[in-house]
Input
Amino acid sequence: MDMLDKRIRQILPIVMMLIVITVGTTQPPSETISVSNGLQDLCKELIPNVSGRWATDMHWFRSLLHLPLYFMLGFIAAFPFSKVWVSVGVCSIIALADETLKIFLPTREFEVGDIIIDAIGFLVGIGLVALCRWIGSKRKIRE
Output
């Protein structure tokens, strides 16, 4: 039972991120736009005199919001699996499922660009954990 408890504690954060992603995907457009506007305003306050596409194009900004979300997913998914490819596989399946879900929602649409942004986010998250593990293993060798 102890091993099962450990596995549940390892997988639970991934399930929680999956729920967050699904809630965001299935939100009514008015709620999504409201959250996006608020985050965009916050970014403009944090970075004065900001310009560029992400600061003016709401659709592009909403796509960029996938980066931190999937970074967190990748970071979280890297811990329970010792093999990087397993973490990448789990995150890829979640990203594809998220975009595929949009096909069935009347106010959303499947976008390959979002999958690419998702992949960049989760690969950086997984890569950060893998880098820390690698550095940690090098330190152990020296000691």
